């Protein structure tokens, strides 16, 4: 494939992370127990954010960084200049992290690393602060009261006596890492409440955030970067849901843009986190209610699934002339060489931007299923979503 013009992110790495940061995302199943993580996810998460880190050091599983993969991603337009350190095992990842810390680096991760493994000062964001900021029940400390849904925290044991007024969302309270809708339940009828109670109890969750189900027209994940003296809005991706609280992807459509008031709200919340000590990339789930209110639903003080799409979308639009993007992620049983062969034409034609390839041959936990992640482009929303729907079939 003839190399395509470079896709420059909306901002450089110097506006995403401090200059002493190092990307190290390899955690364990205890820290990610309320995310639905499997062993594969522990290594797969280290393969994200390619092309966004500038020259910063990174600790990555080698399944995402073969010469074949890196050459293809570079030809597709990603600028991968990072100081990449590859590992095969968790022990190797942590040993690399030790060396980076010894060089004065602070670790960046989306979810806390193995408890007690590294000193507090070794993290860009101290784990205790991360947990405080990402706890859904602590949102009132960051968000103006008028920008929150009606909410209260109760003990799981008090759920029956709480006199809920469905529809409501029940979310895990406390400070464990949550996300992906894994520890959220939508309650409309009595059977939903019984199932939610059983699910939360099985996960060891004993405190629940009860949140009114606001009638929302559109919800976005607003991506921001937070440094010592500046907070920057990187853009926003509309969230697509397969079911209530079950996000299935993201769309960026200029016809459904986040209102200016939503940007101002996100900047206000992120600046409150800055004053508390947060640094790096974060996201906020903000919805436009049918009554016109803008509501902050969830804090994501970490990089998000939509981050790469958000920061690369403007350059992809300029390069392709296509204005709408839709996220895609597919697993394939085919060898990586064949995966690349099957996506080469969409990349060359400008309507697919790959942001991550993972070769299952190098990662036993993948069970033979290689991963391809990125976003498709279209002239219209319908065209982009049609291409996204057909994408998995291309790699089957």
Automatic annotation (TrEMBL):
Q: GO MF annotations for this entry?
A: ATP binding; metal ion binding
Could you tell me which residue ranges the ATP-grasp domain spans?
Answer: 131-333
Q: Which InterPro entries match?
A: ATP-grasp
Q: Can you tell me which residues the record assigns to a coiled coil?
A: none
UniProt keyword annotations, A-Z: ATP-binding, Nucleotide-binding
- Protein name in UniProt: ATP-grasp domain-containing protein
Q: Which organism encodes this protein?
A: Phaeovulum veldkampii DSM 11550
High-level lineage:
Bacteria, Pseudomonadati, Pseudomonadota, Alphaproteobacteria, Rhodobacterales
């Amino acid at each position: 494939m003839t190399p395509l013009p470079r896709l420059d992110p909306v901002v450089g790495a110097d506006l995403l992370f401090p200059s002493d940061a190092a990307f190290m995302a390899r955690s364990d199943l205890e820290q990610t127990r309320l995310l639905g993580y499997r062993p594969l996810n522990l290594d797969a998460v280290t393969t994200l954010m390619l092309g966004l880190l500038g020259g910063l050091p990174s600790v990555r599983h080698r399944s995402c960084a073969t010469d074949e993969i890196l050459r293809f991603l570079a030809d597709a337009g990603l600028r991968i200049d990072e100081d990449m350190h590859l590992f095969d095992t968790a022990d190797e990842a942590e040993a690399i992290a030790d060396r980076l810390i010894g060089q004065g680096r602070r670790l960046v991760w989306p979810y806390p690393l193995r408890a007690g493994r590294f000193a507090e000062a070794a993290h860009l964001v101290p784990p205790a602060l991360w947990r405080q900021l990402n706890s859904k029940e602590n949102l009132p400390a960051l968000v103006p009261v008028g920008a929150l849904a009606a909410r209260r925290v109760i003990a799981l044991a008090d759920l029956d006596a709480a006199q809920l007024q469905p529809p409501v969302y029940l979310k895990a309270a406390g400070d464990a890492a949550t996300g992906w809708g894994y520890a959220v339940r939508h309650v409309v009828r009595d059977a939903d409440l019984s199932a939610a109670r059983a699910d939360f109890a099985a996960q060891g969750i004993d405190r629940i955030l009860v949140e009114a189900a606001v009638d929302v027209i559109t919800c976005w994940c607003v991506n921001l970067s937070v440094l010592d003296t500046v907070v920057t809005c990187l853009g926003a991706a509309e969230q697509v849901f397969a079911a209530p609280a079950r996000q299935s992807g993201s769309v960026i459509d200029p016809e459904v843009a986040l209102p200016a008031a939503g940007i101002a709200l996100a900047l206000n919340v992120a600046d409150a986190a800055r004053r508390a000590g947060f640094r790096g990339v974060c996201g906020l789930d903000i919805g436009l209610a049918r009554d016109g209110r803008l509501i902050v639903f969830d804090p994501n003080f970490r990089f998000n699934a939509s981050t790469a799409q958000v920061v690369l979308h403007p350059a992809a639009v300029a390069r392709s002339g296509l204005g709408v993007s839709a996220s895609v992620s597919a697993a394939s049983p085919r060898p990586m060489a064949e995966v690349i062969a099957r996506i080469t034409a969409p990349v060359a034609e400008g309507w697919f931007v790959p942001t991550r390839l993972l070769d299952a041959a190098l990662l036993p936990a993948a069970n033979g299923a290689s991963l391809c992640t990125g976003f498709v482009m279209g002239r219209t929303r319908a065209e982009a979503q049609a291409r996204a729907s057909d994408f998995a079939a291309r790699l089957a």
